[in-house]
Amino acid sequence: MNEFLRKKWEMAGLADDYIFNKVMPNYDVKMQVADLHDIAQRKVEATDPLVVKLKERIAVVKRNRKWRPEYMRRSVYEMDQEMREKKIREGERRIRDGKREILEGKRELLEGKRELQKSKHEIKEGQDRLKEKEQLIQEREQKLHENQQTIIKTSIEAMRALNIDKTTIKKEIKEKFDLSDKEIKDYFAE
After folding, report:
1. What is the DSSP letter of 15?
2. What are the domain boundaries of the chain?
3. Which of 75, 78, 112, 159 could link 164 by a cystine bridge, Cβ 3.0 to 4.6 Å?
4. Mind listing the pLDDT tens digit of every residue in the chain (190 residues)?
């Protein structure tokens, strides 16, 4: 139907009846659609005039050799179209699922990165504390060594003041402080 006639019929309150190829008021079309809905729901009886007319039309289309190929082409086309739409919906669903999985993976990756950063930070703090303790131990060892040297020097001077001979002093210092001969020589060289 051309556009001009369609607009004219719409303005006049008429609509094109596609089932029986006649022009009728809009309210009749709505009633007919309700009838078709009832037919689809199987709520009408087989004696209903509309059902009888539809069955006659379908039988005519099925018997007509000229219309049958077109009917079959359209039927196959509609089935193909339904399959395409089904595949498209399935593809869209898979895409949505894939996107959801990707987002979930990204979220898990970010959580893993945060945990890794936290672990690295804790390791660094532990290493810093360990370095501080090592430094403190070295400082204490150094102080202990200095105190030992001071005690050894003081002991040597005290024994000299008591007029103890050099070999006895060396022997006593070596036993008390567990020093080597070279270390003892260094103390007496001063």
Report:
1. E
2. 1-63
3. 159
4. 456 655 655 655 555 444 444 555 555 555 555 655 555 555 556 677 777 777 787 777 777 777 777 777 787 788 889 899 999 999 999 999 999 999 999 999 999 999 999 999 999 999 999 999 999 999 999 999 899 888 888 888 888 888 888 888 888 888 888 888 888 888 777 6
The pTM assigned to this predicted structure is 0.40
How would DSSP label each residue in 130-151?
A: HHHHHHHHHHHHHHHHHHHHHH
Residue 1 makes CB contacts below 8 A (sequence gap 6+) with 16
DSSP string, 39-84: HHTT-S-TT-HHHHHHHHHHHHHHH-TTHHHHHHHHHHHHHHHHHH
Q: Would you say 152 and 173 are in contact if contact means Cβ atoms under 8 Å apart? A: yes
> Helix or strand or coil: residue 2?
coil
Q: What Cα–Cα distance (Å) separates residue 53 from each residue in 47, 49, 60?
A: 10, 6, 11
Report which of 38, 39, 11, 4 is spatially closest to residue 25, judged by C-alpha positions: 11
* Tokens (6 digits) for 91: 């593809």
Contact at 8 Å (CB) between 32 and 16?
no
